[in-house]
Amino acid sequence: MGRYFLRRLLIAIPSLLGISLVLFTVLALAPGDPFEELATNPNVPAEVRANLRTQFGLDDPVAVRYVRWFSSMTKGDWGFSFVSRVDVDKLILQRLPVTLFVIGSSQLLALLIALPIGVYAATRPYSLFDQVANTFAFIGFSLPTFFTGILFILVFSIQLDWLPFVYRSDIAETGWRWWWEHARQALMPIAVLGLFQGASWTRYVRSAVLDVIRLDYVTTARSKGLGEIAVVVKHVVRNAMIPVVTLVALQMPAIFGGAIVTEQIFRVPGIGSLLISSILANDTPVIMAVTFVLSCLVILFNLLADLLYGWLDPRIAYR
Amino acid sequence: MAGLTLASPTASAAPRAAPSISPGAEAWRRFRRHRLALAGALILALIMLAVALGPLLWTVPINEIDFAAKLQRPSWSHPLGTDDLGQDLLARMLYGGRISLAVGLAAMVIAVVVGTIVGAIAGMARGGVDALLMWFTDLFLSLPQLPLLLLIIYLFRDSLKALVGTEAGVFILIVVVIGGFRWMPVARLVRAQFMSLREKEFVEAARALGASPTRQVVRHILPNSLGPVIVAGTIDVANAIIAESTLSFLGLGFPPDIPTWGRVLFDAKDLLDVAPHWALFPGTAIFLTVLSINYIGDGLRDALDPRRVM
Amino acid sequence: MDEKGLHLLIDEVKQGRVSRRQFIQTMVGLGLTAPLASQMLTYSGVAQAQAKSTYKPTKRGGGGALKVLWWQGATLLNPHFAIGTKDQDGSRIFYEPLAAWDTDGDLVPILAAEIPSTQNGGLSADGKSVTWKLKKNVQWHDGKPFTADDAVFNWEYASDPATASVNIGSYKDVRVEKLDSHTVRVHFQKPAPFWADAFVSTRGMIIPKHLFDAYRGAKSRDAPANLKPVGTGPYKFVDFKPGDMVRGQINTNYHEPNRPYFDTIEMKGGGDAVSAARAVMQTAEFDYAWNVQVEDEILLRMEKDGKGRADITAGGNVEFIQLNPTDPWTEVEGERSHAKTKHPLFSDPAVREAMNLLVDRQAVQDHIYGRTGVATRNFLNNPQRFRSKTVKWEFSVDKANQLLESAGWKRGSDGIRAKDGKKLKLVFQTSINAPRQKTQAVIKQACQKAGIEIEIKAITASVFFSSDVGNLDTYSKFYCDLQMYTTTMTQPDPEIFMDQYVSWLVATKENKWQGRNIARWVNDEYDKAYRAAQSELDPVKRAALFIRMNDLIIESRTVIPVVFRPRVSTVSNKLRAPLSGWDSDFWLLKDWYREA
Questions:
Q1: Mean pLDDT of A80-106
Q2: How far apart (Å, rounded) are the C-alpha atoms in residues C38 and C385?
Q3: B-chain residues within 8 Å CB-CB of C301?
Q4: pLDDT tens, B283-304?
Q5: Are the CB atoms for C273 and C292 separated by under 8 Å?
Q6: Does C34 have pLDDT greater than 60?
Q7: What pTM value is reported for the model?
Q8: Do residues C100 and C379 touch, judged by C-beta distance below 8 A?
Q9: ipTM of the predicted structure?
Q10: For residue B196, which residues of chain A lie inside 8 Å, CB to CB?
């Protein structure tokens, strides 16, 4: 397995190269201009825009720009944002802690909801619990986050006045008050994301467990006199984990990439909001950096998932 | 523990299946016995009938602006109330439902079919083919959707419009874009299922009996890996209906005056506190569609899975 | 009112008992045009005086934190690189110009000791120079004195093309001379009726020479002070996260007494306009939210919660429709909408007139924009002294029908009018934005009743307003029959606003569609009037020229103004924040305070 892992890592390098080339081309060809806002300002002569474009090398051919980006990237220089003229790595590092905290917690919440509910519902298919859980799950993923987010704000911030809905990364308080304020403001974005994700994961977990639970070996285990909980945990869940691991691995890069809609609604200064504002402003160096890191994570986590399959089901052979 | 898996697909099902009944008829018999699936099929059929025939029966125009009647609660003249331009919500929901349903279902089919094919090939072929297909999947997973969408509109909208007309061109574009961005999880799920299932005893047995790879896949592996695919399919319907409304904000979707369900829901969000009915109906419509498709999916899986006791 | 009464009233203005604005309104009520009334005051020796301040606090500081919300966060804090309003506003917390524009379009001194005028010798008789006296005893946040050298440096810095300052337009054609340590003179190449551009308002914010001197031209990006501003403003820099947060703290050496009131300021960015309004008016998490482009209906409901109000400040921005005078569907010399072509349908004046009758501006105001968009007949709406009183508009489907009928446009079996085989089918584009799509729907419906079919097209704003040459959907390409957007008036003088119809600025392939005349309408009389206004030093005659230009555009029916768009902010009920439609929201941040 070690050799397999190493080989896969080696394959990852050319594939990342290929991905970066595709990303760069897409971004370079996509319509838009980082200095679009200047165009609507009558006091800014067109020369300024032309000048900035040349200064930032936007008028060079795509291939030249890609080579330039790639060579400075290998030297650890991520470039600077056209919009804020700040170095890209600095911008990303500013946003990273909030993203990791908010999105990370929401994914954790989603797992905490999906695993127990999904497994329990699957052990009693079509029971009352299963039906209620299913209904909530359907509601959960039928409603988009832009909608639930506003619903939460209306209920918890405006009607009940319990929670603030503007997320502030700088909170003046210290000590326990700081923690308290942070928890209060993070509660709604985490809940909105976690519930949305949890709803669909619940369905996957339930389905995966259902697939396994009636297999003969489970019946065998049961007939050997093992307790119900032991059967479910030891025999069923482990075998049902393969789709769940796949999904979690697919979702992991989002912990870095953030959640654009939810971050926008609650003004969470995470990487998702950095990405969307960069996209809207056509700030290519930032978009390029964020998406490139994302693709590295996509590859890494999918590789980890492949390795986990082998641990969950030892008969999966790596060739 | 996984080694204990002695899944023998025929063991429990064989005695009950009368030899004279074809597998298709057997599946249909099982499906009919799944009450929730039947209920789901009924609801979906009703929704489809409503959006197909509704506009013929409820002939209020969808874009008749009447400022005197704006944001009205449901009443006899406007059974679902009105929006902020005084337009009749029932007429709009019925009209927009055609597009939402068509987009949702078509995009789901694309995502599921492409995902299943890619995942199945990768899972069976392994080696170089697997690596290449997974590279492709990873690439799609990491593409930034927004700039790519803008690029696609920019490159293809006018040529497609010229080729097949406005409505059809936009529809194809939307379905391809939404489906094209949603097949990757399905592919990875199917591949994972395949990797696990192809080593199971019953597949080995089939292989030993000389079943061709195609037969192994179609008869043995695929039916057993449908569980997550069906879940993914239902979630994709919901996501596609919502994604369509996001696309229309990028100028990729239908013109903004076409009231698709996702679009109505989006328009309603800022007045949620004063006109909850405006959001309630599109929300419910999406929910019911997802619910029914999901039950149909459950029924299908139970019907196709020979192990399951009905 | 007789002459004696008039003089009495002018005296009252002089003593400050009656404001200039009240005076002008009274005069207009008596049948005088606003520019004439304004001029009357100038001749009577009332300079464009500072409005009486209503600032109450009697000591500096002690006001706690001021929390403001911008739904687009500031991305950089060097005013010379400011890409959008958000950046200008972020910079304005720390930097100040010599003078700023108040809401009537009058100048208020900030770092200047006084506003230059003919009386005080600041304005030369030939109109070719203006002399600014700077305030003494002003300190930068790091304690260094503010002098004429700083002003001269800003001119050098901004006019260097290598710096790529966005303010280059205000500085490149002038020469700035230092007269003494606190006096500078700005020389113009030719008589400049509008002299208050360099060193004024958003483009006039002054950065310190001692910190930026080493970073001129191509090195400008490397200046550490780009991200850590050191200015003269009421608040000192604390922290900056691009796109998210700008924080400042009280400047205890501020150059005006008892100011500022707040101890800290926090400018949070991101999110959307509706929830920004909620955060001020419903939960009171914030004191102020900028540019709340929200339907009035929502604002009115939120105001009922009693925590905040919408503050509506008139400016010059106008939402208008352009009818393409050129043919957008035929390619000539590699471009569509070529200036030489004629629109197949709009070349008939009856069709243009009918379109003008079919835009129900009152309904658009009443049901879509409310207080945030006022139905207008003029392209040039503000300041008052430039507003035309002659043009008229009405909404009438019947008249439109009659007009088209008599012009030979007959309804076909599908209800769409046609003439000579040409059907009245039009494509109407705008950017994606809820009120715009509703306006489109209102116009589409009216047109339908008149037998005109409109296809609605909405383009995402970042594409529509981009200057990308390869993109077909930009507003400057105008590959469409009609389009609608808001054109902004950035200063209270219309010269840079009315250049949108001069023949030498038509957007063409040759100038990469960067010409300001996007409507592509050209007219000899207009050109002449514009040229005359550029050098006319008599304010009354100049105003008359601009009014004439406005009337020419409106009467041509190639441009249909819909609503003029005041700025809308939401303000907590206790906050006193003087705003201006002609300057940054922070133009008078020093005077913001909270009432007990």
A1: 88
A2: 7
A3: 273-274
A4: 888 888 888 888 888 787 777 7
A5: yes
A6: no
A7: 0.83
A8: no
A9: 0.83
A10: 242, 309, 313, 315-316
